[in-house]
Amino acid sequence: MNDIRAITIFVRTATLGSLRRAAIDQGISPQAASQSVIQLEKSLGVRLFHRTTRKLSLTEEGQRLFDSVKPALAILSSSLDEARRSKEEVNGILRINAPRSLGLSVLWQFFELFQQHNPKVQLDIQLDDQFTDLVSGRADVGFRGGPPPSAGAIARRLMPIQLIVCASPDYIQRHGAPQTIDELSQHSCTGYRWANTGKVAQWQFQIGDEIVHRDIPAVICVNDTAMETQAVLSGLGIGQLGSFEAMPHIRSGRLVPLLMQHVSECGAIYIYYGHRAEQSLRVRTFIDFMIGKLADNRAFFLDRSELAASVPLLKARPHAQIGGAGRQR
């Protein structure tokens, strides 16, 4: 027996004073309503109604049950109505999980823009460099860089992550620019230390059809991609940066891309989420918004024509058209 259904019929019968009226109210037959009340009485082991051919009234036990369950049933009904409305209104809490390296450099501006368009949505953002599945992270939507998320979520590829060797114009003016990979050993370079292993990341290069890795000595080594980018911007050395960090600075002229014939890819940026049938309107709206802003947005990666040209991309496009990709270490 469906207890909630039976209690609902019981409360409506007591409120309306008639099984027939309660049946009409619930869209069922009078026989089904009567059977539901009888089954509830059997389940509880008490009689809930005094019945005559002309009159229906609550017993003492029925009155106590009615008085106790009616407020709770009203709260339940209100909660169910609110849940149904969430499928029709863009409001409520939206929980998002993303790596720190993507948070400010790529995603924040679009989070801000989304909330400007949807002020009734409260964003709850968790930045975590370790991949978090939606269930354990209690998230509605996640972002990550690298390989696609494992099974259990729908993943949409937004853009490639490329590794780009960069230097500031000031550094190049003072020290010149390397023309080959081997010449990097003659320059000051930055390094990235993996937070989970403590090892310094190798630099990765595309040479012909192969990907090769090199250990590049670093004059400064950090475990944060934004800080490494800042070190390169400050002219402390040449760095190999993820395109989602580097490209806004390349397009504005604050960084110069080097060794472009050796730019390599190390995965992509993905948005991932649960099945659409389970999503509220606010989640679907957010996913569609972010895909519209980020999918194949060239402000944060080099397209094939730019790679083929192998020339500096100073001020190629206005900075206002932002979207993202880059190294997810």
TrEMBL record:
A Pfam family hit: LysR_substrate
Range of residues in the leader sequence: none
Domain annotation HTH lysR-type: ranges: 1-59
PROSITE patterns recorded: HTH_LYSR
Keyword Heme part of the UniProt annotation: no
Transmembrane portions of the chain: none
Keywords (A to Z) from UniProt: DNA-binding, Transcription, Transcription regulation
InterPro entries documented for this protein: LysR-type_TF_proteobact-type, LysR_HTH_N, LysR_subst-bd, WH-like_DNA-bd_sf, WH_DNA-bd_sf
Similarity comment text for this entry: Belongs to the LysR transcriptional regulatory family.
The protein's name in its UniProt record: LysR family transcriptional regulator
